[in-house]
Design goal:
Number of strands: 10
Strand content: 15-25%
Oligomer: single chain
Number of helices: 8
Largest sheet: 7 strands, mixed
Order of helices and strands: EHEHEHEHHEHHEHEEEE
Shape: globular
């Protein structure tokens, strides 16, 4: 039987000790004994300044891994990508455009192999990287959530979720100074239109999935709606 997935779905990475300790617990070994693969794919579709990417990469690197790999999902042979995933103990998937990330997985034929690799590894998502597991990741939710523009930016109007593991959806950066519109009123307006559950999480929070168990870890604030 396949091992259940272990996911730490963050808004902005491992920003505090609660989240770092959660990763240690899921991993079952010290960081210095583990290999991590860092996937920046979602970030390349995001325009503008990328200092946030550099800051998060450095924050992750400074945890002191045995090996720190960087892997782009596009442009490499499928088997090479999957082999690099399997060489890691932790798969860390950065933020950016979650629709580009999802389409990179499906259009490169990576979904089944990626998910199989996660059966024996720990996955950490950041923002976009935390949003790709929902079966609700499609053009309908894009309209409900209000980010269809990010899908249309890619020249697409439809989307197939790469994994479709959960009925619920993660929406990051609640109360973030980088997204000042993301307050309680914003979350409640989305929830009023949604026909699926949404975890709205701030940058100090993560949704943890350990097999069949799902909970929220936070040193900040979050909401589960409706």
């Amino acid at each position: 039987m396949a091992r259940p997935v272990r996911l730490l779905l963050t808004s902005a990475g491992l920003r505090n000790e609660t989240l770092r300790e959660a990763l240690r617990d899921l991993l079952g070994m010290p960081f210095e004994e583990a290999n991590v693969v860092y996937i920046p794919t979602a970030s390349v579709a995001e325009p503008g300044d990328h200092s946030w990417l550099v800051a998060d990469l450095n924050r992750l690197y400074d945890l002191g891994w045995r090996q720190f790999d960087v892997l782009e999902l596009n442009g490499l042979p499928r088997q090479l990508v999957l082999d690099r995933l399997r060489h890691a103990d932790v798969v860390y998937v950065e933020g950016g455009n979650h629709y580009h990330l999802a389409r990179s997985i499906t259009e490169n034929g990576l979904a089944d192999g990626f998910l199989e690799a996660l059966e024996s590894r720990v996955y950490v998502g950041v923002s976009a990287g935390s949003m790709i597991f929902s079966k609700r990741l499609d053009e309908h939710s894009a309209e409900v959530i209000g980010d269809a523009e990010d899908l249309h930016l890619l020249g697409a109007t439809t989307l197939q979720p790469p994994f479709g593991l959960f009925d619920w959806y993660v929406k990051p950066h609640l109360y973030s100074p980088d997204f000042p519109e993301r307050d309680d009123a914003w979350a409640e307006a989305i929830a009023a239109k949604a026909d699926f559950p949404i975890y709205f999480i701030d940058d100090a929070t993560a949704v943890r999935v350990d097999g069949d168990e799902v909970d929220v870890l936070s040193e900040g604030r979050w909401r589960s709606l409706p």
